[in-house]
Model the fold of this input.
Amino acid sequence: MAKLLYGDYIVGMMSDEFINETLTLSIRAAGAAGKSLIVALDYSDDELHITSKEDGSLVSDADYASDKIITKILSPLGIPILSEEAIIPSFEDRKDWPYYFLIDPLDGSESFLKNRSGFTVNIALCDSTGPIIGVVADPLSNLIYAGAMGKGFSIYQLDGTSIKTIHSNTIKKPYRLVTSCDEQGELEDLLPPGIHTTDVIASPVSGALKFCKIALGEAEIHSRTGTYMEWDCAAGDAILRSIGLEVYDRHTHRRLKYNSRDLKVHGLYTSKVL
Done:
């Protein structure tokens, strides 16, 4: 595979070679990282060296190992990488990047450490418009969800084998709203404009899998009132963009912006019934 350098391409003028190679390597990286997490599930807490970050969230050797695997596979592309488990360049250094990866090597560390479903590997390629390629690996299900602008949405096994699936496009009331497991907002606070509480049934879903359920046709609305990080939602955002859906800032009602100074998202929503 030829080495592809992002500096050779102009934002908005991406070649098929660029998209295909980046998507292929992102799927490979997510699969390899997902496999490493499956192996690490058998480790004891002492072996994982679990610690707390400044914000109180948990991190372990499994997070760092996943990050190392992803970085090794994606680095030959020559595209800058923003990862939750790495040093973040200053805003001044990164604000004019034409392309960059947003990575969460282990989204849902608490679920992982409790050996329950809901943890994922999130990889997104972004340009100035936001995420344009998104890959979400669900290791416990042996599945990878992937989407790219102009390429649509696909599903793979962790080894990269493509899976043929039928995605439901049926939309009817009551609409299925997926929320975060730790969502604190009231139902009326979660609803996109024009949707009423009697129109929906809500259920909690962990991590980036909420976006995947919408892509699969297993939910119609996702909304979040709380603040979290860009790498938590960028891959899912890209997957939805690949099927023509946008993710909006819940305050401005405009599509999410990325590569902000603090890399935080202050609430969002997306809906198939807008």
User: Anything to note?
Assistant: The radius of gyration is 18 Å. Residues 6 and 14 are 10 Å apart (CA to CA). The first helix runs from residue 16 to 40.
